[in-house]
UniProtKB/TrEMBL annotation:
Keywords: Coiled coil, Signal. Residues 1-21 form the signal peptide. Residues 32-85 form a coiled coil. This is Truncated transcription factor CAULIFLOWER A-like. It comes from Olea europaea subsp. europaea. Residues 1-85 form the K-box domain. GO terms for cellular component: nucleus. Transmembrane segments: none annotated. GO terms for molecular function: DNA-binding transcription factor activity.
């Protein structure tokens, strides 16, 4: 390494120590004032950059806040629309089912099937008409196995 580089490194090391507040005994009043002014300018630049970053961060957060508020508004609007649909849905179901469902009268009987040869309206010895066992209990107990017979 050349002597020039050694001198430059030595000077920068001394300046760095001064900036760190070390080895100030060799400085006179004018040098101390210059150092103080340089440190004040450096501190001003540091604070400016820090504030700039803070303002940018605040602006970004405000932009995100606005976007979230807009999204929240849209979601609230969708919820209200869904709630309105759910309130109206039973009315639509009643109207649609009422118009589309065939009208059966449970009181009127349909004609019985004549499967075992007995005439309509004639009961067999076990009390069944047509010989069909239409008892739901036997159906569930035999085929589904989940109800007692």
């Amino acid at each position: 390494m050349s002597s020039f580089h050694v001198v430059i490194i030595s000077i920068f090391t001394c300046i760095l120590r001064h900036y760190m507040g070390e080895e100030l005994d060799s400085l006179n009043q004018r040098d101390l004032q210059n150092l103080e002014q340089q440190l004040a300018i450096a501190l001003k630049n540091i604070r400016f950059r820090k504030n700039q970053l803070l303002y940018e961060s605040i602006s970004e957060l405000q932009r995100k806040e606005k976007a979230l508020q807009e999204q929240n508004y849209m979601l609230a609007k969708q919820i209200k629309e869904k709630e309105k649909e759910m309130v109206q849905q039973p009315h639509w179901d009643q109207q649609n089912h009422g118009n589309n469902m065939p009208t059966f009268s449970m009181a009127s009987q349909l004609p019985c099937l004549n499967i075992n040869g007995a005439y309509e309206g004639v009961a067999t010895e076990d009390g069944r008409i047509n010989g069909l066992d239409l008892n739901m209990d036997s159906l569930y107990s035999c085929h589904l196995g989940c109800f007692p017979a």
